[in-house]
Amino acid sequence: MPATSMDSLVNLCKRRGFIFQSSDIYGGLQGVYDYGPLGVELKNNLKAAWWRAMVYERDDIEGLDAAILTHRSVLKHSGHEATFSDPMVDCRKCKSRWRADQIKDGKCEKCGSADLTEPRPFNLMFKTSVGPVADEDHFAYLRPETAQGIFCNFKNVLDSTSPKLPFGIAQIGKAFRNEITPKNFIFRVREFEQMELEFFVAPGTDDEWHAKWVEARVAWWRAQGLESGNLQQYPQKKEELAHYAKATVDILYRFPHGMEELEGVANRTDFDLGSHSKDPQELGLKAKVDENKDSVVKLTAPDPATQKPLVPFVIEPSAGVDRGVLAVLTEAYTEEKLENGTERIVLKLKPHLAPIKVAVIPLARNKPEIVEKARQVKDLLLKLGIGRIYYENSGNIGKSYRRHDEVGTPLCVTVDFDTIGKGEKPELADTVTIRDRDTMKQVRIRVAGLAGHIAGYFSAAR
Asked: Do residues 313 and 261 both lie within one domain?
């Protein structure tokens, strides 16, 4: 079980350049965060791992990058305009606002008063004007999820790539929700990223595929370093399901603030493709019919058995990138007491997620020969294409090791006097020291074999 406190993570993230409060110099913008030099690397590595698993390692999934600005009709017919809301209450004493379903014991979390207003619905979508005229006829929404862009492009992908059922469309992108009470660092925010897959299947096979995707997604999170004991599956009760869902299983993780949703895997039936199709009644769809519907296509695919057009059901694994980053940081954060009585903080990230893959450290930055050799070693490792290779030129080897332990760098390569043939052991010329983050063990290896050694390490660690 992670014993990591949220304060420890927030402190580390700011101190080492992972995550900053957005607009911090003006007091910050609540529920919005910026990813710093190391945070953007970690975030990109997590997204790359998801994309690899979803798109590159499978032959039945294609990728997409749909627009953030969303036509009003899309979110009208998807049900978001009518149903995408949370119950909101105001505290009459301190004037703060809260989600009614998260109020504990009927009291304000800020001042403890029980004098609260009656709950009322609050739509979470951000509205923006499009074009020079800002009125009700010229507006769009910032998308509250990436899914609708996939559904609207269903026919485009079908026509351009000719997939056969079952197949999926994957997307990673920004989404926006005007949360009433953003909290718990990057867990609940107003601007975030999603990793979403819409996997289209023939009706009647949806329950089987739903179970398969739940199993696959739990296994994937374990491969990112999350221990199975910190992951739980929670099948939603009927009254908890979204308006579009036949069934949903939440994958929960033990965050510092408690067991909360990391990813949801939903069976959305034919609701979405039906909602965006022309003449849904003719197709026998379950989606509600809107007489003002202005879609111009029928979103169908050939039945694998009969080749007749059918509206597929869809299974949706949907994960938050930011919550994923918070989960892997929580799992990796470790405070260790060493044999000499000192302590160290180490991020035991999986190597493929580490922001810096290898740090190259010259033992003496005032020795041109050592510095030049260290730069050559960095250039050699850059050619491997494994990620960021960092030239560390702080001048203090002990502090360099501790710094890279703290940011999760798996390997440090040190260039010293022996490397350039000016040490006490001539036989160590043209060798470097490799230090392992987790064990702190060091080995000497010849520069000629360094690239192969490093490549083998990251290949085995994937």
From this structure: yes
Same domain, 154 and 274: yes
Cis bond upstream, residue 166 (ω within 30): yes
At 53, which amino acid appears? A
Taking Cα atoms as reference points, which of 324, 360, 366 lies closest to residue 432? Answer: 360
Residue 270 and residue 382 in one domain = no
Domain CATH code at residue 34: 3.30.930.10
Q: What is the rounded CA–CA span in Å between residue 54 and residue 23?
A: 34
In 199-279, where does DSSP find H-type helix? Answer: 206-223, 271-275
Distance (Å) of CA 277 to CA 158, 163, 191, 225, 282: 15, 19, 30, 41, 10
Please list, residue by residue across 366-383, b when 16 or more beta carbons sit within 10 angstroms of its beta carbon and e when fewer do.
ebeebbebbeebbebbee
Sign of the torsion formed by the C-alpha atoms of 336, 339, 342 and 347: negative
Rounded Cα gap, residues 247 and 267, in angstroms: 5
Cβ atoms within 10 Å, residue 106: 10
Q: Is residue 390 part of a domain?
A: yes
Question: Is the overall model pTM greater than 0.70, yes or no?
Answer: yes
- Pair (276, 368) in one structural domain: no
Residues with Cβ < 8 Å from 93, sequence gap 6 or more? 108, 111, 113, 115
pLDDT digits (tens, 9 = 90+) for 41-98: 999 999 999 999 999 999 999 999 999 999 988 888 888 887 777 888 999 999 998 8
4 vs 129: CA distance, rounded Å: 43
Q: Which two tokens stand for residue 299?
A: 């979103």
Angle at 21 between CA 251 and CA 345, to 5 degrees: 70
- Asked if the structure places residue 14 within a domain, the reply is yes
Q: Is residue 95 part of a domain?
A: no
Q: Please tell me whether residue 202 adopts helix, strand or coil conformation.
A: coil
Closest to 324 (Cα-Cα) out of 223, 221, 243 = 221
170 lies in a domain?
A: yes
Residue range of the domain that includes 446: 356-461
End-to-end CA distance of the chain, in Å?
23
Q: What is the CA radius of gyration of the chain?
A: 26
Q: Which helix (H) or strand (E) holds 127?
A: strand 126-129
Per-residue model confidence (pLDDT) at position 86? 82
Residue 198 sits at the vertex; the CA angle it makes with 192 and 202, to the nearest 5 degrees, is 165
- The low-confidence residues of the chain, meaning pLDDT below 70, are 1-3, 278-296, 395
pLDDT digits 0-9 by tens, 332-370: 999 999 888 889 999 999 999 999 999 999 998 889 999
Please state the domain count of the chain: 2
77 CB-near residues (< 8 Å, 6+ apart): 275, 276, 290, 293, 295
